[in-house]
Model the fold of this input.
Amino acid sequence: MKIILTEDIKSLGKKGDVVNVSDGYARNMLIPQKKGVEATPANLNSLKLKNANDAKLAKEALEAAREFGKKIEASAVTVSIKTGENGKVFGSVSSREIADAAREQLGFELDKKKIQMNGVLKELGDHKIAIRLHPQVTAELTVHVTAE
Done:
């Protein structure tokens, strides 16, 4: 019997896959537990329409991420940290501080978990920080670190 999976099943496949299983397994396990539906022509057509809609939404999300990435790359934020004599830096700049500065100065809502930094910034000057907006889109934000 052909079944359309409604959720991921480790031994069979991923959600949306059409798999061939024994009749008993389908009737006694998959269909009653709502882990699959029978692959009738109506259900197959519904799956096809859902996949087309999901592809369209994914394309729109990718385009939106690219547009937002262009805005991010065209802008910069300034973060100040305390310094002592001879330009010695006290503390550092973290991803949370960069996200807060972007919200205050630019109005951009950036998730601190999406900001990809190697450690923290402990030097004055300009730094390029990668921000992962989408699995296929990464933008670079310029961060000016200045003394207070």
Notes: The chain has two domains: 2-61, 67-147. The beta strands are 2-5, 18-20, 36-38, 76-81, 115-116, 125-134, 137-147.
